[in-house]
């Protein structure tokens, strides 16, 4: 058996009029409890739910009491006892507990315990009894037969109590208490009264240990008192369940109204969002038509631009070839001009030589004049001068011939350069024409590209609008989806509440059937 320690002598009283309620599954695992149970136990709801109910078992409680409880409950019968529970801090509290099975279709599905503030006398008896059981002492109650007059007095009082507690049985009880009991003045007559009262009272719980706990009377009267207490506890449990059910129905009704109201509002929003989606879809359809037209036009312009680009590429290649030929001609012209420059340099050099020869010739002529003036005596010197003049003359002729050759070469090269220049101009003109054609095509391509650019801008704007519409639709769809999920969740909550309500209604129905069976057997 589970032993919860430590324990202290600090007692907490159950508030008068409060009911401690908890529900467990068939294995004793707590599935639900009310706030007063949390307050009295000292545990939080999270610490209690999912734990075995013996989490609050006090070590002073004998294991035999719980064995008796489970044996009784598994038979589908309620159990009643004065119980000492342990609080989380080690303290304790006494309760008058009534535990009953919850039946569905004749099967036990759970157990409910309803505990109230116990009578101090019952607590004292229970405490003494449990100490004896724990000490393994023999229980020796004195079930003596009291005097006749005393029995009659007690039976009269008991009959009055029965009539007050159970209105349907009032007439019978009053008859017994008012007149019939006075006639039973013998022991066997008393026994008959006990039997008759026992037959009238519902058989809820009448275990001998319970008799020892709840009464000091003899076994017959004690059994009757215990039956009456058990019946009152049973009725209290029924009222508790009915009260819970009423509260639950009120809560469901309130929540259902809120869910219905919110669902109605959400449906209105959904309707608005659906209209917005329809408008956005229509706008998107128009924009898509315009976009399709622009795409077709753009494709045509792009195709034409592609053709022009191919033609321009060919012209560019031809222009490149022409320019290459111009370049080659330019190179040849450059070579020819360079050759002319070289020949010109040679001519310049030759002219310098001619100038030098001229100077020398002048000097020789001057010398010849001088020598001639001397005549005779200097004849030989004049001859030498004449020879020099003659040699210079030959050189001059030679240079003149060379100059002539150079000039001819210059003329030839110049002619070649002119021819090449003409050819270069022709090629350049051809290249210029092709470049002009390329420029025209490029202009047309530019125009097409401009058109494509404008259409692209238009398509971009259309796409932007489509994006905005798509975003709006996305947001509306998301909101509609969210609202749908909310509605679905509320529907699930409603279904869950309805299912729970059906279960509670079924449980109440089963409980009332058992109540009717027990009380009107």
UniProtKB/TrEMBL annotation:
GO terms for cellular component: membrane. Residues 21-76 form the PAS domain. One of its GO terms (biological process) is chemotaxis. It comes from the Bacteria. It is found in: Membrane. InterPro entries: MCPsignal_dom (IPR004089), PAS (IPR000014), PAS-like_dom_sf (IPR035965), PAS_fold_3 (IPR013655). The chain crosses the membrane at residues 152-185. Keywords: Membrane, Receptor, Transducer, Transmembrane, Transmembrane helix. PROSITE patterns: CHEMOTAXIS_TRANSDUC_2, PAS. Coiled coil: none annotated. Residues 252-481 form the Methyl-accepting transducer domain. PANTHER family: LYSOZYME-LIKE PROTEIN-RELATED, METHYL-ACCEPTING CHEMOTAXIS PROTEIN MCPB. This is Aerotaxis receptor. The gene is aer.
